[in-house]
Structures are given as structure tokens and as C-alpha cells.
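C-alpha cells for Iron-containing redox enzyme family protein. Go.
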Amino acid sequence: MRLERTSAMAEDHRPLYTQLHAIAELDATDAASTWNIFARAHTLCDLAFSRQHEDLRAEFHMTLSDLFAMHSAAPHTWGARNQQSRVAFEVRKLLWERFFGHELAHLSELDVAPVPEHPDALVNYLKEINEDHIASHHPIFSYLCDEASLTDVKSFFYQEGSVDARFDDLIALAQIGMDGSVKEEYAENFADEMGHGQSDRVHTTLFNRTSRYVAQFQGKTDNILEQPSTEALACSNIQLGMAHDRRHAWRLAGYLAAFELNAPKRCDQLVRACVRQGMDRAQLDYLTEHIDADIGHAEGLFDDIIKPLAASDRLAPLEIAQGFLLRLQTSTEYCDTLLRGFLAHS
């Protein structure tokens, strides 16, 4: 979409998400507003990933999060009305490709061995990388277990809500277009997310119930980090971006494998962190459910998804590995930021 600026157009310096939400029908707005939207989007793409512009990076990810949220918006809402708009499509594409390109370039700086093509070798390679990567044993989890205040534990749960509260939708999107064991394994994972027909065991319900219990434990707590951090939004945006972009279906499989591989240990440590604060383990069923379930999910992803996909196309192993590393990379940045904040206020 090419736009020419006229001398009568006054530049709008409001955050991009504010500009978008101020317009009821994005494709029906005037030329000046449309020009300002794209001008702001290009400014964010140019500056948001510089360390000198943390505020713009936050705006970037808040905007991209809002644009992805259009895909799951309820009918007759602003998001649903504008999901298919040309403006939303172009801005979403612009921001997503800038973000994904930044993360992929960051991967090229890693000192890792070449990705093997054989499916069995690829799985061993990914597991070895995970074992050596800080994301698999990030110190924030031992901190939460052994030292964190109740405020820190509650804050962590608020942040987690931005990252994986709707994991069921992610799995549903991942299985689109797949066949054979790949589709079957995604379906089994989705059935677990849906509680196998038991409404009170649906994982979104479990997550909301556990989060509510943690938030209400011992009443209101001051200084809770309720708003999602930029890094939490980045974790959400990378997975949603790949899920909604068919070019990244293999990368999403690798991403999900890394996610599931590290979930059991993390959930176990979070349970211990909550119990140390005096919480009732029986009220933490979202976490306890994932300690055992995700071990099976990880192995299923490796055996029935990663291996068949790797064998299906010579380009797949590299992209699977990239997705795996993208999860480790964004998760580490998210955990690093939270831990720095917790330690600064401890």
C-alpha cells in the first residue's frame, strides 16, 4: 500500500495501537489517518529494536498483539470488523515480518552445530541443544522456588497469562493442513487441552482457575506486575505469528516441541514455589496436570510430528530447528527480564 503525504497532513504521534482503535472501520478512514498509521508503523519497524527505544518496542508488541487478536475476536467487535481490512493486513504483515526477521537474525549469532537432516539425528540434536540452553534451567524458576516473595509469584502468574493461556488455539492452528501421524498427535494434544470431554478439565479453565486462586491468595497484594511485559507479548507474538503464517508451519512444530519439552520441570518448580508460600497444592491443578501430561506431549511431538515432518522435505529440518531455537530464545529473554525486575525490587 503506497501513500503520498500532502502538506495538509499533520503527523499523529499517538501510539499506533491508539490510532488504530480510534477508527471504527479502518478501510473507510481518511487518507491523512491512513498515512499516519503507516508512518507510525514504519517508525516502529525502524526504531523499536534499538536498546535506546524500549518504549517503542513496547508499543510495537502491543500493536502486533492487538492485530493478532483480531483473528480470535468475537463477532461485532472492533477486531472482528477490521480483521480482513486492507489496512490491518498490511500493518500486521509489516510488523510481523520485521519482528520475525529480527529474531531470525538473532539466531544466526548463536554458536551451534549444523542442523542434521536425518530425523533421528535431528531429535537428538534438539534435545542436546535444549539441555545446554539456559531456557531449560533458567534461574528464575529456582528463584521462585527458594527466594521469591508472594508478590513475585503472583506477578509471574499474571505474565504467564500473556504467553500460554490460550495454548488450545495454538494447537488447533498447528494441525491445519497436516496429515497422518502429525495430525493425529496434534489432535491428541488438543484433546488433552479440551479435557477429553470434561468441561472442568479444559486447560483454559484450569489455567484461569489456578491463576484466580493464586491472585486471590491472602487477599490483594500491592505492586503486582499485572500488565504484560514487552517480553511476554513478544513470546505470544512469535507463536501467534508462526501459527497464522503458513510459511512457518514447520517452525511452529519445532517451537511447540521446545515449549512442551521444558514445561514439566517449570510447572513442578512453580508448584513448589506456590506451596512454599502456603498455597494448597490441590488448587494448582493447571500446573500439576502439566507435570506429567507434557512429558508425553513432548515425546509425541518428537516421534509423531518432528520426525515425519523432517523426513517429508529436505528444507524441514532447518526450519524445525529454527522454531525450536526461537522458543528457547524468546523464553530466555522473557525470563531474564522478569528476574532482573524481581531482583531489583527484592
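The mean pLDDT is 94.
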